[in-house]
Write a structure and sequence with these properties.
alpha+beta, Hypothetical Cytosolic Protein, Chain: A, 3-stranded antiparallel sheet
Length: 73
């Protein structure tokens, strides 16, 4: 299923090497887009997709922040 880019949530690896939620979808760095649903976040976490696609291990704080994004929608 394809969704419009505006409906997706972006996670970015910054040039400094940190992984962050990008609410504007305009931050510099390598990005990973996901659908913003809890089921997608579970899949991303279980399969290690952030580490695989962004080539850096994310902190658990990132997942807590993304869960907040889901509940805030």
């Amino acid at each position: 299923m394809k969704l419009p880019k505006r409906e997706l949530v972006r996670i970015v690896r910054t040039p400094q090497g940190t992984v962050e939620y990008d609410p504007t979808s305009k931050a510099d760095g390598r990005g990973l887009y996901w659908c913003g649903r809890e089921s997608c976040l579970d899949r991303i976490r279980k399969k290690g997709m952030v580490a695989r696609f962004l080539r850096v291990k994310p902190s658990e704080n990132l997942y807590a922040q993304l869960e907040g994004v889901i509940s805030g929608k």
